[in-house]
């Protein structure tokens, strides 16, 4: 899983590797911040710990495509095919993650959990994949959560997902703990599968992983709880989410660069640890790996929402908008009104989406300059702006949380039909000019 990915990133010339000792408190995160969290890094020496830390592995769109053997052009269809045609996983007796099994004297503080921001309440596990089993169907649910380290065997969990909240509350009504595992050290198929909506599709995330992987995901049984975890993971924490008890969680520097709120949240008691020999700890600067993968799945949902309404060419849920607030869609406009229809479809397809720009299919939606050109020359606010006040929004947007509602906006930056003034200037043969021939 993770080790294979690191080697592939190394072969692609993308992995930065350092043997200089770094401090997990502020320095490690500061380096990632300086790199804009866009280059995978392997820190071989972390002060006070005996294991390396890797981070920012899955923050680059093109790298994720290569690691998952998909292309930009076929990403929508391949991700949707995995959702529509899940494949069985495989339970095996042994796996590398079982090379070390600790059930007594648990101390999760031996792992190099980073301390990212000055006002963070504690060290955090930021790339940990939570695994639970649906209490009614038995299907496996995975999602990346943030976990605040409280004590030797105790972490708090931010369970913001409605699905996860409902699972925990159902168990809490019976005064029973919810069994959970936290996987650290995984690959792109496991990450992408975790971002598929269980509420929307009712799927087993392990079966989605197998479909994306092209072969069965190998899993092993946990030692103290009734869950299976990837056999080739680096580290697994086994535990239970304790009913009718809460711990203060936060503040924590979140995705958009603001501190999340401090609130009471459930906590997990760790019962066992499994890990490979010489494990590699996986971290994520809050929290681009998760949100790029989430953005790719949001693009699937946005594409199919628009496909029912207009002739959509491609969609882009943007990095700068946290892979949730901003989207751009290009359409083959066939009638006046298609741009407005696409705006309505886009804003209704994803609750978190706040601003959407609709452009023609001659605009490269992954080129900010091209998109800005469309807004500058094809948009008039008096007729092309769609404003929806006080709608539902995202808890990650502080301008939403102050009032509990969010204004939404769409920009129709499509050109009028049959108007030759909007014909783009072309140079014949431009695509065949190779500047290396001249310079």
TrEMBL record:
Domain (3-octaprenyl-4-hydroxybenzoate carboxy-lyase-like Rift-related): residue spans on this chain: 92-288
Classification via InterPro entries: UbiD (IPR002830), UbiD-like_C (IPR049381), UbiD-like_N (IPR049383), UbiD_Rift_dom (IPR048304)
Enzyme class: lyase
Gene3D superfamilies: UbiD C-terminal domain-like
GO molecular function: carboxy-lyase activity
EC number, as in UniProt: 4.1.1.-
All copies of domain 3-octaprenyl-4-hydroxybenzoate carboxy-lyase-like C-terminal, residue ranges: 294-413
Origin: domain of life: Bacteria
3-octaprenyl-4-hydroxybenzoate carboxy-lyase-like N-terminal domain location: 6-82
Keywords, in A-Z order: Lyase
GO CC terms of this entry: cytoplasm
A Pfam cross-reference name: UbiD_C
Family the UniProt entry places it in: Belongs to the UbiD family.
NCBIfam families according to UniProt: UbiD family decarboxylase
Protein name: Phenolic acid decarboxylase subunit C
Annotated source species: Caloramator mitchellensis
């Amino acid at each position: 899983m993770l080790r294979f990915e690191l080697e592939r990133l190394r072969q692609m010339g993308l992995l930065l590797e350092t043997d200089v000792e770094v401090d997990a408190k502020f320095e490690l995160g500061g380096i990632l911040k300086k790199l804009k969290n866009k280059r995978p890094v392997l820190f071989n020496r972390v002060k006070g710990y005996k294991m390396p830390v890797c981070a920012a592995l899955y923050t680059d769109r093109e790298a994720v495509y290569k690691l998952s053997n998909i292309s930009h052009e076929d990403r929508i269809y391949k991700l949707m095919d995995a959702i529509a045609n899940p494949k069985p996983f495989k339970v095996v007796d042994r796996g590398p993650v079982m090379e070390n099994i600790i059930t007594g004297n648990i101390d999760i503080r031996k792992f190099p959990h980073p301390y990212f921001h000055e006002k963070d309440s504690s060290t955090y596990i930021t790339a940990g994949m939570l695994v639970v089993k649906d209490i009614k169907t038995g299907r496996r649910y995975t999602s990346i959560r943030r976990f605040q380290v409280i004590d030797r065997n105790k972490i708090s969990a931010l369970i913001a997902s409605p699905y996860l909240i409902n699972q925990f509350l159902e168990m809490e009504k019976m005064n029973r703990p919810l069994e959970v595992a936290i996987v650290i050290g995984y690959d792109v198929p496991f990450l992408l599968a975790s971002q598929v909506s269980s509420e929307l599709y009712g799927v087993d995330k392990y079966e989605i992983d197998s479909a994306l992987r092209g072969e069965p995901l190998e899993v092993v049984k946990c030692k103290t709880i009734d869950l299976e975890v990837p056999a080739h993971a680096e580290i697994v924490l086994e535990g239970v989410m304790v009913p009718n008890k809460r711990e203060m969680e936060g503040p924590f520097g979140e995705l958009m660069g603001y501190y999340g709120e401090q609130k009471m949240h459930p906590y997990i008691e760790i019962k066992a640890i499994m890990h490979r020999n010489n494990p590699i700890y996986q971290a994520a600067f809050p929290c681009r790996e998760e949100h790029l993968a989430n953005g790719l799945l949001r693009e699937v949902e946005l594409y199919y929402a628009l496909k029912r309404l207009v002739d959509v060419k491609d969609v882009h849920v943007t990095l700068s908008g946290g892979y949730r607030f901003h989207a751009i869609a290009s359409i083959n406009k066939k009638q006046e009104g298609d741009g407005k229809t696409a705006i309505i479809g886009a804003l209704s397809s994803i609750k978190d989406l706040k601003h959407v720009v609709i452009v023609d299919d001659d605009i490269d939606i992954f080129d900010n300059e091209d998109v800005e050109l469309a807004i500058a020359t094809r948009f008039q606010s008096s007729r092309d702006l769609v404003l929806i006040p006080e709608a539902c929004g995202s808890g990650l947007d502080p301008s939403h949380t102050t009032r509990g509602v969010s204004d939404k906006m769409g920009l129709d930056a499509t050109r009028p039909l049959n108007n030759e003034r909007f014909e783009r200037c072309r140079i014949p043969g431009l695509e065949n000019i190779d500047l290396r021939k001249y310079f």
